[in-house]
Each structure stands twice: as C-alpha cells, then as structure tokens.
Write a structure and sequence with these properties.
By secondary structure, the chain is mostly helical. The chain is about 80% helix and about 0% strand. The chain has helices at about 1-20, 25-35, 40-55, 60-75, 80-90, 95-110, 115-125, 130-140, 145-160, 165-175, 180-195, 195-220. Helix 5 runs antiparallel to helix 6 (about 95-110) and helix 6 runs antiparallel to helix 7 (about 115-125).
Length: about 220
C-alpha cells in the first residue's frame, strides 16, 4: 500500500510541477516514478508520454523522440505516441516518415479527424493529391464541420481542376467561418478562372478587407 501511495504522490507532484510551469522539476519527478520498483506499464507509458511533451516544450526534440519511442516500447498500442512522432516528423518536413507514423496512429485510433487532416497535408506536400483528398474525406466523414479539412480538400480539388467540388468545399469553409479570408481569396481566384468575374471581384475584395482587419487586430494585441 505504501508503494501505491508513493507512486500516486509522485504522479500528483509531477502534474503539479507541469501545471505550474516547473518543467525541470516535472521531468525529475517523472523520472523518479519511472525508476520506482513497483511502477506498472500503464504508469510507465504515461510517464514517457508526459516526458515527451515536456521535452518538446523545452525544445529538446531528440529527447522528445526518445521518450515517445520509449512509450511505444512499453505500449505498442499508444496512438498518442505515434501521433506525436508523426507531428514532429511533419514539422521537420520529413513527410514520408510522418505519413508512416500517422497511419500507425490511425490504425490504433481511427476516430482522430485531426490525424487524418495532417495525414492529408503530408500527402499534399508530396504532391500526392488524390491520397491527400482521401485523407481529408476521412476527416470530414468524422466531423463535417471540421473547417481545416474542408478547406484543405477544397484546395486539393483546385489543384486537380475539379472546380465544382473545389467551389463547394470553399463555400462550406466560408459558411463555417465568415471571416476566413483565405477561403474567400481562393474561391475568388476559382471564380475568376471560371469566368465569373463579378462574383470573383466580390470575393477578392472581401478577402482583402478581412485580411486587413485581421492584421489590425494582431497589431492591437502587440501594443
């Protein structure tokens, strides 16, 4: 019983340090928990995941990757660890590696619309547009109001010259967020290509006004 209390106290202490922004103390505490003789695999996995997130917050990407890899060694079914490794590879523009990790994460958790969207983005960066669209489709199937996937799919349709499908998605993105100036701009560009000049000009003017408004709001926040 004493050992269970010790483990519980260490976990509470680690989370408290994390919450307070004392990352170094949190890392020390998670490592103490990992070295406890009675720590079980669930706690080990949780500790490695937490260490990975902390190392990432500190900018120690190599240690982050090591921690997430350790989490997978303890629990090969940790979708969170695969997702974190995928996100890191994507950030480094190692898109083939990111795709592999995202697909492993989605095999374990097929309900993660964010992972499907990011998978689509990786395929898109590799100019594999059809595969990107399939990934965006999955994200939208899971959440039809997931604006990032709707918008990204619209842009992918644009690349393939599928104008009607692109228009539908870009319009849906605008319906979901009336201040989405990038969607207005891309739809305006599409309308111009389709020969609908007046509608295109309306969208492009709207995009410019919203972009200016967004810039002014950002400047106000910095003052």
């Amino acid at each position: 019983m004493n050992n269970e209390i010790q483990l519980s106290d260490l976990m509470v202490s680690a989370y408290t340090h994390q919450k307070n922004g004392d990352f170094s103390l949190a890392i020390q505490t998670w490592n103490k928990l990992l070295n406890h003789p009675d720590v079980n695999n669930d706690l080990k996995t949780n500790a490695h995941l937490s260490l990975g997130n902390l190392h990432q917050l500190q900018g120690n990407n190599d240690l982050m990757i090591e921690s997430m890899s350790n989490a997978i060694k303890v629990n090969p079914n940790s979708a969170e660890a695969y997702f974190c490794l995928a996100s890191m590879a994507q950030e480094k523009e190692q898109f083939d590696e990111a795709i592999s990790y995202f697909e492993q994460a989605l095999t374990l958790n097929g309900e993660d619309c964010g992972a499907f969207n990011n998978l689509g983005n990786c395929y898109d960066r590799l100019e594999k547009t059809q595969q990107a669209i399939k990934a965006y489709d999955k994200a939208v199937e899971l959440d039809d109001s997931y604006i990032a996937a709707v918008y990204n799919r619209g842009n992918a349709f644009l690349k393939l010259g599928k104008e009607d499908l692109a228009y539908k998605d870009l319009t849906k993105a605008i319906e979901l967020d009336a201040n989405f100036y990038q969607a207005f701009y891309n739809r305006g560009t599409l309308l111009k290509r389709m020969g609908k000049i007046a509608e295109a000009e309306d969208d492009l003017k709207k995009a410019k006004a919203l972009a200016q408004q967004d810039l002014e709001q950002q400047e106000q926040k910095t003052h």
